[in-house]
Each structure stands twice: as structure tokens, then as C-alpha cells.
Write a structure and sequence with these properties.
The structure is a homodimer. By secondary structure, the first copy, chain A, is an alpha/beta fold. The first copy, chain A, is 25% helix and 28% strand. In chain A, the strands form three sheets. In chain A, strands 3, 4, 5, 6, 7, 15 and 16 form a seven-stranded mixed β-sheet that branches. Chains A and B meet through strand 12, strand 13, helix 7 and strand 14 of A and strand 12, strand 13, helix 7 and strand 14 of B. Chains A, B: This is Enoyl reductase (ER) domain-containing protein.
């Protein structure tokens, strides 16, 4: 039998294991043109929380009692498609199933000789693209400017900081444990980092870590941390609004200081970023990321959890920051 | 003797007449290179409220017991400068004085044969430039898109709507009285308009007036009205944050729904706009505005109050929306 994870109920507040259901289903029947895929790595990402709710967004919500899906790397184990042969690896948006038969037209072949397969869900996948394209297309950092990153030890944040350094900027990160803060500085080249859980006055701490102010704020978390970041933003600053994980589990509309004041006073740009809007730039961006990775200028950071059964828990753990770098489940 | 209006005290909340002081000072002494100016028209603008507080902003605060200043059109009555002769009219940032002697290097000559002098403080001055450059540089409206304007009957808003129509958009305005709503439609070509003072559910009213959603939101007011506007914004929408008059007199940091959610979900851009950032585009923009004005495509709308003594009250009246179009004091 084949295993699948479905959406059992829409979470209220923080997602629970009971919001997911493990089911056994029949083995997939292959059609002409399809490939049979064995799941190797599954990506869990904060944005999936939005799809578990029944709210209108840029991607439709998951359906109740239907399979969950996310970024997956899989191996072709049977093929009825000339373009794909047994033993090929592919990445793409796939269901949380051990085995599935699909038409591979939206899948991308990936090569485990170039990089470890999990990298295609991280630094060479959506994560790396989000970091690179958000920073360069909206943030447009200039050499010598200061970039502040929230969720800096997370999947996207750990890459943003490294790219900021490659581009010649001062890079300051915000994370939730002392270990992460140390890791940001020792592994990812952050010039400075702040532990928001042990810092009383974030506004002051950011001001001290960013003596020339903040030119680019790459925001993955929203909430109070962003309020403190906004206070330190420079004239003509750019805020890349990439994520707001601190608010994803709130059941009421989150409120906070209105932004219009600092946007006007400092001529600041704030823009919501969704990586799929920049699809035509993916090939060039992946090429650049792969080159930096090969040159050793960029390091991949992954937290890998093992076991198909662990996918829901790995997802839930994102909200308590259990991961450093990209959270991936190895099957 | 010469009259001057100084800042007597920094307002707490809504400005009061007692925050200003009328003084009599000696007649100005002219230096070489200066011109003696007689004030003809004085512009009062919401942004001056910010300068009356002691907070850091894009322009320094007014100093206590020193003259207030704003956009002024004046007549040269004596000249010790070869470039300016008696009878010339100039516009620029000048003090609230009946007479003043200044070096005219930052002043612009204006011609009362091309347009009434007050227009150089309105549609051909900062107001028109703010409307045109904010809309085109940040809003970038495409033909057929919907533009929503708050403070639509105000100085900037009344021009934004007209330019939106020239550019082939659907234009919907928000104002505070039925008279203004009618005026928006009959005089400024707005396709529809909403009275926020008599509308219970602004979110629904905007949705009805903008059946295709809001592509560009030109925001002059902030606060609750903007919350309703944000709810109706389309994917890839642009929010020009030009003013937040609804919050200028608040003594606490104004709070409201956080914006990160809709910015991300809809890939929206929100940008603070200050007209002076676009100074290099002024000549071209004024030329375009003057051409539309001459062709009758653009109408000037001004509320003119008479008397030097009336400047503070005219300014205070901005916050209760007593003006339609540009508020100007004629001396």
C-alpha cells in the first residue's frame, strides 16, 4: 500500500498534528506520458500555513481530506514518458505521498552530481530564489549599505545574509536563540546578530548593530520585530515583505503601529514579495546561486528530519524556530 | 511696521490658534543681491503639522518663536538683484511675513499672464506636482485600471482624479461631505465617489464603487479609510502613501491592522511619496500640467481665504476638511 498525508482539519491558531491525517491508499495507476515517482525529500515551508486556511490568497487553499503538497524531490521509478527515464531525479510541487504517478511537464530534472538532492529544495530551489530575487529585485542593495534580516537563521534568511555579504553590504541578522546568533556570525558571515528572545529593547539593539541605519530590511517575520526594524530604517529604505511567520497563527487580524508615518517621512518602499512572480528570472538566478555555491561563496544550511511520518511535525516545528536554515524531510 | 506669524507653542493634538503668535517687527533691511518681497498668496498644507512638532522628519521642525514658512507667491517691490525687477512675481518657500527681503536664488519667477498667481501654489505648484508625480512615478496607472483616491476633494486629490481620467482610468474618490462627493463627480470627472462620514461599511462601499478592485490607491488620509481601501486592493496593486492627515493630530502612535498580510498575499507595493525627491522632473511635469490646464482638460480648484491674519485659521481648517481643492490665503 501507498501512504499519503491529507489535510484533516483547518487549523485554528497553531497547527496541530491532528490537523493532518495519515492514510493508506492504493498504488497509483500510471497513464501514458506519466512517470512513477518515489518521494526522496519533502520541503516544509511557513507559507503552507496560509494554504491550510480557507482564505483567498495568491495560491488556492488546500482542500479538506485531500493530499497536502509542497516542494518535493523524487526519483523516477517507472516511466511512460520519453523525456524521463528510470533513475532520473526531479523537483517540483508534488503531493505528500510516498509514491505518485504524474505528468512531469511541470517538473524540473535535477542532478545529484552537481549538488546534494536536498539543495534543490533549499539553496538551489525556492529558498535560494526567494532570497536572491527578493533582495536584488526589491531591495536593490548598493555596496556599503546595511541590510537587516529578520528570521535570519531560517531557510531564506540564512541565504539573504550571505548574498548581502557577496554584494558588499553590512549584514545584521535577527534570530531567536544564542546558538543561532553565533551560527549567523560564524557560518553565514553576518557582521552582527541579535537574539530577540533575550533583548529587551529591540529598537535600541538594532540601532547599535546598524550604526548607519538600515537601508534594506528583508522581513520574514513581521510583528514587533518589524516595528523595531521600521523605526531604524533610513531615508529611501526598502522593505522586502517576504514573510510574516510571527502572525500566521493569529486568529484575529494582527494590529500594530501604522506604517504610513515612516513611509512618508523617510520615502520608504515596502513591497510584498512572492517568488513565483519572478519565474522568468529563475534560470539566470539558479545559475548565479549554483556558481556561488561551487565557488564556496555560498553555503547551504539545512535541518534534515528523517521519515515520511515526520512531515507534519517538521512543519509545526517551523513556528517554534526548531530549524536552522532550510527544514527538509528525508524519506 | 511689518507683520509676522511665529510658532508660539508646539501643538498637542489638533493645532490651536494659540499655537501661533502675531508679532510686529521692524521693516526688513535689504542686502546686496536681495529682493524685497510683498506677500500676495500663502499656501497652507497638512504637512506643516509635522514641522510644528519636534520630531525628526524629512524637513527640520519649525523653531519656537521663529517665523512659520510655507509656499508663498510674492511681488518684488524693490530689487538689489539684476535678475529680478520691481513688479516681478515669484514663488517659493518663504516666511509668513507681509514683507521680507531675501536672496532669490531658490525662488521661481511666475507669470500672471499664463495662469492666476494662486495657481502657482496649487495646480501648477507643489499640489499639482504631488498629484502628477505621485500618480505617475509610483502608481504607474495603466489605461483601464481603477484608481481610488482618499482626500479626493482636497488639494492633491482633486488633481489626482482629473489626471487619472486623462490617463484613461476609472477613478473613484473618497470625501467627507455630500457636497464634495457631488463636486468630485460634476467638476473633477470622478466616475464615482463615497462620503465616508455617512457610509457605514467603507470596505463594502469601495468594493461596489470599484467592481474590478483597486489597482492604484492614492492615499492622502491614512487611518480607517485606508484599511478599507487596502482590503479592496488588487494583486500587484500600488499604494502611493502621500499623506495621513487623519493621524497627524494623534498624540499616541496610531495603530491599525498590520499591512504585511495583504502586501504579501497580493504582491502589493506601498511607497511613501515626497514631491521634493523628484525635483529633477519638475520642469517637465509643470509643462505637462500647464498644457492640460490650457487645453481645459484640467481644472484648478481653490478655496481662497482673505487676510494675513487668517493664515493660522485656514491651516487649522484643513483638519476639518473646510477646503475643497487647494487652501490658499490671499493677502
Amino acid at each position: 500500500m501507498n501512504k499519503v498525508i491529507t489535510l484533516n482539519s483547518r487549523p485554528v491558531g497553531k497547527p496541530q498534528l491532528s490537523d493532518f491525517k495519515f492514510e493508506e491508499v492504493e498504488m497509483p495507476q500510471m497513464k501514458d506520458g506519466e512517470v512513477l515517482l518515489k518521494t526522496k525529500f519533502v520541503s516544509v515551508d511557513p507559507y503552507l500555513r496560509g494554504r491550510m486556511s480557507d482564505a483567498k490568497s495568491y495560491v488556492p487553499p488546500f482542500e479538506l481530506q485531500k493530499a497536502m503538497s509542497s516542494g518535493v524531490v523524487a526519483e523516477v521509478t517507472e516511466s511512460k514518458n520519453d523525456q524521463f527515464k528510470v533513475g532520473d531525479f526531479v523537483s517540483g510541487s508534488l503531493e505528500w505521498k510516498e509514491l505518485q504517478s504524474v505528468n512531469p511537464e511541470h517538473l524540473t530534472k535535477v542532478d545529484d552530481q552537481i549538488a546534494p538532492l536536498s539543495n534543490y529544495l533549499g539553496i538551489l530551489g525556492m529558498t535560494g530564489l526567494t532570497a536572491y530575487l527578493g533582495l536584488t529585485e526589491i531591495g536593490k542593495p548598493q555596496k556599503g549599505e546595511t541590510i537587516l534580516v529578520s528570521g535570519a537563521a531560517g531557510a531564506v534568511g540564512s541565504v539573504v545574509g550571505q548574498i548581502g555579504k557577496i554584494l558588499g553590504c553590512r549584514v545584521v541578522g535577527i534570530a531567536g536563540t544564542d546558538e543561532k546568533v553565533e551560527f549567523l556570525k560564524s557560518e553565514f558571515g553576518y557582521d552582527d546578530a541579535i537574539n530577540y528572545n533575550t533583548t529587551e529593547n529591540m529598537t535600541k539593539a538594532i540601532a547599535e548593530a546598524c550604526p548607519n541605519g538600515v537601508d534594506v530590511y528583508y522581513d520574514n517575520v513581521g510583528g514587533d520585530i518589524s516595528d523595531a526594524a521600521h523605526t531604524n530604517i533610513n531615508r529611501f529604505g526598502r522593505v522586502i515583505v517576504c514573510g510574516a511567520i510571527s502572525t500566521y497563527n493569529e486568529t484575529e487580524v494582527p494590529t500594530g503601529p501604522r506604517v504610513e508615518g515612516f513611509l512618508i517621512k523617510k520615502s520608504v518602499l515596502m513591497q510584498g514579495f512572492i517568488v513565483s512572480n519572478y519565474a522568468e528570472k529563475f534560470p539566470e538566478a539558479v545559475k548565479q546561486l549554483a556558481q556561488w555555491l561551487a565557488e564556496g561563496k555560498l553555503k547551504s544550511s539545512e535541518t534534515i528530519v528523517e521519515g515520511f511520518d515526520q512531515i507534519p511535525q517538521a512543519f509545526i516545528d517551523l513556528f517554534s524556530g526548531k530549524n536552522t536554515g532550510k527544514m527538509i524531510v528525508k524519506i
